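Entry: Putative 8-amino-7-oxononanoate synthase
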Amino acid sequence: MMRAKNRQNEQAMIPDALQFELLRGHASPLHRQLYLRIRDAILVGQLPPGARLPATRVLAADLGISRGTVDQAYGQLLAEGFLLSRAAAGTVVHPQLEARRLDPSPPSAAGPTPVLADSSEPAPPRPFQLGLPALDAFPRKLWARLAGRRARALSLTGLNYPDPAGYPPLREAIVRHLALFRGIQCSADQIFITSGFQSALGLAVHALLRPGDPVWMEDPGYFRASGALRLAGARLAPAPVDRDGLRVDEAIRRAPDARMAYCTPSHHSPLGVALSLPRRLELLDWAARRQAWIVEDDYDGEFRYDGPPLPALRSLDRSGRVLYIGSFSKTLFPGLRLGYLVAPASEAARFAEACNLLSPAPSILDQATAADFLSQGHFARHIKRMRALYAQRRAALAAALQAECGARLRLDGQAVGLQLTAWLPDGEDDRAAAARLNARGLAGQPLSAFSLEGGHPPALLLGFANVPAEQAPALARRLREALDAR
């Protein structure tokens, strides 16, 4: 009786705007449908500023989906400034948001106009969107030719279950690439193909951690990594970051018994700094002494514009404590959903067993196409072209923002990666600023969305890879108008 009453109370906490049916089997993923539904309900005023959202467990049960799906939708809305997390008080619509309508007409009694269109095409990327390479510059015809050739040559054995650790020729091609460009020496049986970074991180967590294990997490740090670690039951220990990267001494002071450290040493996400050599050696020494693990997320280490890319932290590891994660989302295109993990030699058998159970690898055709792209030299040539293009686009956007915004924004000087950090005046709310950009069709993430403990100066993170140089002045003007709006 009491349980039934509790369930009724929890259902009563769900706003009318969120009582709807998700379209299963639709081209748009469930988390994307939920994200759009909540976002539009906020924009049309059905979820007013300060309105409390149901707990992820409650909403997941009501919609018949996993809690992780709700976490993904909430996480995106938090990052974009639509929602605000208030710890024990729960998640609310950001109080500083003004209710905006998508159009002048009032919402119908049935709720917001459905967001999902008839087209199966996803929405185009918005200017300044993070995490995207130059999609307009990808050699699609070459990729299509390689993919078509692989599809036509598919044999009967190719229709069977693939190797759960990944397509062997792709693993061999990655071994050669890492030796040439990232200073990493390994064998193919240490390479495990995954469907992107998050899949690789999940594989590492399943293989090496137990629920409740403490993990160092860079602060600020990549919010999808911290969210995935929390979801896996890890106990996060914030590790502060300064101009030399992760502060190893402070991390040791806070959590000396950590079982794992997550870091982005070649290009910190989101601040853009590189982990200094003394701290790299200090981090490796700690892991060796404590028999702890280091997860190195090398998400865009290939893109440095004022010199050659920095060697990976893994290249300095002599104790076998570093797990290196790479992804083709930034170097090729994110729709490919292709990444990989390099396990220490001592743990290769354990990871092979985990792969056999979890099967994280994507389509064999995609893997075979990527293997051809790497082994035939197209990948190295593509990276070289993209470095030149991104340097040009970065410089053009930086100049346009400086001319348009002046002292309103202070840009960082890190000539690396695919994003600019634009520092706002002290005291400004970067989540509210990001929400104003979003309301005008622009992207950009608030730095505070990456923070675990807060206290960082306000800033906006702006992706530039998909901003052609000739469009930079107009987009900088739109950004300035969005920032000036109140």
